Amino acid sequence: MPDEQGPVADAGGRTPGGGGDPRDATVLRLSRSGTVVFASSRPWLHPLLDLTRFLETTGETTADCELYDKIVGRAAALLMVRLGIRSLRTGIMSERAIPVLEANGVTWHADARVERIDCLTEDILANETDSDTAYRIIRARARAAAARDPAQCALILENVNLTRGGQSVLQDVNLRVGRGEKILITGANGAGKTTLLKTILGSLSPMTGSVQVSADHTGESRTGYVNQESVSVSFPISAQEVVAIGVAAARASRGEKEQRVHDAMAVTRCTPLATRMYATLSGGEKQRVAIARCLAQNARVLLLDEPTASLDTDGKRELVSLVERLADDQEITVIMVTHEFDTMDRSGWRHLVIEDGALSTAEDAP
What we know:
Layout: E1 8-9, E2 28-32, E3 35-40, H1 46-58, E4 66-72, H2 74-83, E5 87-94, H3 98-103, E6 107-114, E7 116-117, H4 120-124, H5 131-146, E8 153-164, E9 167-178, E10 182-186, H6 193-201, E11 208-213, E12 223-226, H7 239-244, H8 254-267, H9 283-296, E13 301-305, H10 313-330, E14 333-337, E15 350-355, E16 358-361
Parallel strand pairs: 4-5, 5-6, 10-14, 10-15, 12-13, 13-14
Antiparallel strand pairs: 1-7, 2-3, 2-4, 8-9, 8-11, 15-16
């Protein structure tokens, strides 16, 4: 989980003081010609994540700007490079950050230099050089940390147990998932992966424990489910009609329903498929249409059960890229069960393993 920067020490073991006025609570400040463009006093790497969102939403740039950041480690340096920062001042600079800055032409001044910063994120990114990969990892850790606050959770499972046919299928499952998190669940056949998804979906009820999905004020389902081939049909139906299934039960006007279908197909790049018969689509196209159906439904949690199993290499890559974009751009929570995790880039995903109905992090799994 993300951790705020802890004590720092220089090569001699001393803990130096930060630069600037100690009464100034500002952690990060972006300025142009002496005018403050953006400032933040939040902990950890949140100020740089906030600056990223600020630049994306306002159209502002870092051109001709100087950035002040109270403490700069390698993680912060990678985010700065991604934002195009060229001039930097800091109170404390980690030696791990310097190669990143200098390799990307960033001029910098530090009041003090330390060997390392005591922060788990720094250790995770110790050998990372790609700023986009670093950003995905940092943002994923931030969202996972946000799940500590129930108000920031998309999904909460508490002490969930389920028995079928006298066999325990889920055992004391506890899980909190933040909004926009990407969760990867792996495990052997029969371990309980699909049962877990169907319990979250509500099609199976736990014997004990509770499942809470973020509420919708309209009462509409906020959870969408896609499996290896989400819609099986033996009659003529177009791709657009499949997507429209997602709004069939919605309490909305006809115009609003049509707009939701249009928007869902656009964001999943299904618009050119609208009039095609669903049965004629490729495996990857069918999965994109299935995800569009979930979006038209206004789902904020996507449950994907082996969605890439029948796809070729390009189809697998395109589908994973699509759901990553939905999570990153729209804060849609993605929970994906797969056997094919070895072939995908897992940066930015939280990896969980289910074994005999018990859920654990990949690092803690036997």
